[in-house]
Amino acid sequence: MAAVKVTLLVFTVFFFSGLMELSMAHDKPANLRATARVVDTKAIDQAIAYLLMFAALFVTYLAH
């Protein structure tokens, strides 16, 4: 049972680190101060979709 918890923890860490890389990989403007207030709705939608897929995977894993 401990091995399953460690595997789940490692998977979760890699999953969220991937989400962080996606959010940081978008175009980096030269002037960050001018574009700091702009919200990238596409990135937010994609992050929510990834979180929902992760939740569905987790529930499916627990159901079996």
The gist of it:
By secondary structure, the chain is mainly alpha-helical.
Describe the structure in your own words.
By secondary structure, the protein is an all-alpha fold. It has one domain. It is 78% helix and 0% strand. The protein is built from three helices and no strands. The chain has helices at 2-24, 32-35, 41-63. The model has no long low-confidence stretch (mean pLDDT 75). Residues 1-25 form the signal peptide. Keywords: Membrane, Signal, Transmembrane, Transmembrane helix. The chain crosses the membrane at residues 44-63.
**First and last CA, distance:** 15 Å
Q: Work out the strand percent.
A: under 5%
Q: Total number of β-strand segments?
A: 0
The chain-level mean pLDDT equals 75
Sheet of most strands: none
**Parts with pLDDT < 50 across at least 5 consecutive residues:** none
Bin the helical content. Answer: over 70%
- Following the backbone from N to C, one meets helices and strands in this order, namely HHH
Number of domains: 1
Number of helices: 3
Radius of gyration (Å): 16 Å
> What general form does the structure show?
elongated
What is the SS-derived class?
mainly alpha
